[in-house]
Write a structure and sequence with these properties.
Blueprint lengths: L1 H19 L7 E4 L4 E2 L12 E4 L2 H6 L21 H4 L23 H9 L5 E2 L7 E7 L6 E4 L3 E5 L3 H5 L8 H9 L4 E5 H7 L13 H14 L6 H15 L1
Antiparallel strand pairs: 1-2, 1-3, 4-5, 5-6, 7-8
Length: 247
């Protein structure tokens, strides 16, 4: 009887491994003990029975924990990457260009143009060169409050650059990333303090004080335009939230 039990146990464990291992390599492996091993983990090759995930975030969302000595990074593990390539994919702001761009060379960068386009009154510039905006009248999409001094405003990336990095932007050309960082559709003038509290969070982690439905709808529209790939839990959260907005 004991021998039969051991044989059954072996078959169950072996089947778990066979079903869980994907045809591709360099995924994040969740071991049977619930630890998430990226390719950089020294236990990666030794982990034979596992569930496969595309990223550490997905593994963590499924209840996994990081093994000792492994730190979570903004890294998307793709099937065509080697472990060495995966280590180079940490988010850097410079991957999206160096600051605000001035593509037409008129001295008004994309921050200035966003301020000009969204002000409900003519803006005032710092000099006769009409480069830097100093005053205007903006209605914050985060609070519906009126802001008149440009120095009180941050230009929010509705879809944060760091958020996009682990959801598809790693595969873009540098030109596309720079276009994304300066796309007027993705730029909103808002209170500096609120923009900084938002950081790189998606809508399931952070919402503005007002205009929730409009904010999430615009966020999701930009995700679709750029064919970004939110996590399964994020996609479901957005779907349920927008359905509630429509009801």
């Amino acid at each position: 009887m004991k021998r039969r039990i051991r044989i059954v146990t072996f078959l169950v464990v072996s089947t778990f491994g066979m079903l869980s291992q994907p045809a591709i390599s360099d995924v994040v492996k969740m071991s049977s003990s619930g630890l998430c091993h990226p390719p950089q983990s020294r236990w990666y090759e030794r982990t034979q029975n596992y569930r496969a995930f595309q990223s550490l975030d997905d593994c963590s969302d499924a209840g996994g924990k990081l093994p000792r000595g492994v730190t979570e990074k903004a890294t998307l593990i793709l099937s065509q990457q080697t472990p060495a390539m995966a280590q180079t994919l940490e988010y850097e702001r410079s991957a999206f260009g160096h600051g605000w761009d001035d593509t037409d060379g008129d001295c008004q960068d994309s921050r200035a143009e966003a301020l000009i386009a969204t002000s409900t009154t003519p803006v005032r510039f710092a000099t006769d060169k009409r480069c830097r905006v100093v005053t205007g009248r903006w209605v914050s999409s985060f609070t519906n409050q009126v802001i008149q001094n440009a120095s009180d405003i941050d230009i929010d990336h509705v879809v944060p650059l760091a958020w996009s990095w682990g959801r598809g932007a790693t595969q873009w050309s540098s030109e596309k990333r720079e276009r994304f960082a300066n796309d007027p559709v993705n730029l909103w003038p808002v209170e500096a303090s609120l923009n900084r509290s938002k950081g790189a969070k998606g809508p399931n982690e952070w919402l503005p004080p007002a205009g929730h439905c409009g904010y999430v709808a615009r966020f999701y529209r930009i995700v679709k335009i750029y064919k970004l790939e939110p996590r399964l839990a994020e996609n479901e959260w957005i779907r349920v939230f927008l359905n509630d907005c429509r009801s």
